[in-house]
Design a protein that fits this description.
alpha+beta, Immunoglobulin-like, 9-stranded mixed sheet, 18% helix, DNA modification methylase
């Protein structure tokens, strides 16, 4: 082994370790970011008001649909969340201060959309708003009863 090859090996390990450490230090920590680890979407209207795992279950385009997920209110005041499908009527979900209301759960709030203008597998554009005036537009996934866990939610 030549002296140059030995020197290269000697410096290779520290250089690789330093490179990996630098890359790790520059990468954002993904677990600190809110995200939707499920079929539905998350929407944060404020730090205290949010929708969780929101989606729509409908048999076919033009049929009624069930809004599924939850709305959380960590504020000190009661609020009403409105979910308004594009071109449709709003569904209003009252949520008391410090409470979470579940949609589509056995003891939860029954939130029905009269007509879903998207076929299963597509997305439904909606606007989610609260009484304080905060709002956000998003596209909720539309699922049907093909998956067993959603079949009982069909309207």
């Amino acid at each position: 082994m030549s002296r140059a090859t030995g020197r290269a090996r000697y410096w290779a390990v520290p250089v690789v370790v330093a490179s990996v450490a630098l890359a790790a230090a520059c990468s954002p920590i993904e677990t600190n970011r809110p995200y939707s680890p499920s079929d539905g979407l998350r929407v944060d209207l404020t730090d205290d008001l949010r929708g969780l795992n929101l989606l729509v279950v409908s048999a076919a385009e033009g049929d009624a649909g069930a809004l599924v997920g939850a709305f959380a209110n960590d504020s000190t005041e009661d609020v009403e969340f409105d979910v308004t499908p594009e071109g449709g009527s709003a569904v209003t979900i009252p949520v008391a201060a410090g409470e979470t209301v579940y949609l589509g759960a056995e003891d939860g709030f029954d939130a029905q959309i009269g007509r879903v203008d998207a076929e299963p597998g597509d997305v439904l554009p909606v606007t989610v708003s609260v009484t304080s005036g905060d709002e956000q537009s998003l596209s909720l996934p539309v699922l049907d009863g093909t998956l067993e866990e959603y079949a009982h939610l069909l309207p």
